[in-house]
Model the fold of this input.
Amino acid sequence: MIAFFLVWVFINNEQKLYLSRNKMILKYKRILLKLSGESLMGDKQFGIDNLRLSSYAKQIKELHELGVEIAIVIGGGNIFRGVQAEEGGMDRTHGDYMGMLATMINSMALQAALEKEGIKTRLQSAIEMKEIAEPYVRRRAVRHLEKGRVVIFGAGTGNPFFTTDSAASLRAIEINANVILKGTRVDGIYTADPFKDSSATKYEKISFDDAYSQGLKVMDMTAFTLCKENNLPIIVFDMDTPGNLHKLLSGEKVGTIVHN
Ligand code: GTP
Done:
């Protein structure tokens, strides 16, 4: 019966579906979760809010228990931003490397929080720092995912002038993720800034071309183009509402999906 249902849904939606460990129907098998460093601050002005960190870890645990393969890229804006350095007269490249180190701090914090929840993790860094993390090796990352480990990719792409959104897109494509889930503080993409314009409405879905022509900021252009050209959908959703991640995977309409 379930098999018939799956075939029916597949034909109708042209969308593959997967069965979770407890036979729940899942929309995606392998995901790349992009978390914002700034969200990790919670209500603080700087750094890491332990409550927020542990809430993220618990949400990720729920997915992990379903058997979803999870890779994570986290930003570093709660600690340091490359552009900040430039404003202070520092060389942009220098600042970007500092930003990459900031993502490693967040990655290590998230790794510890996930392990506290009993999840096996592996942290891979784009910049070699082998005393604290494995170097990034694509085939090894995929093997870890297949073995059920959550893989965190730290230090961005390892290159200045790229954002962690670009790192997320690149890694997602490299590991053949089915989707990028971009966790933010808003619940999707709006026609205008919902904080400034009360008439702004939310898109349930939007094509890459429409998002581009309407000047909607989903990700920076490098990241956006990488996803478009490699046919990798992006879902922008509110990560600060517990339960959203689980809903997304079970097919409930959460956030906005950007697709070809
Ligand atoms: P499998 O061989 O597929 O089971 O993977 P594994 O990750 O368990 O193998 P390995 O024995 O290589 O790793 C054991 C532990 O060492 C894991 O926690 C890795 O993250 C860690 N590890 C492996 N390579 C490095 C490295 O270069 N630097 C650091 N800091 N840790 C590493």
The chain has nine helices and eleven strands.
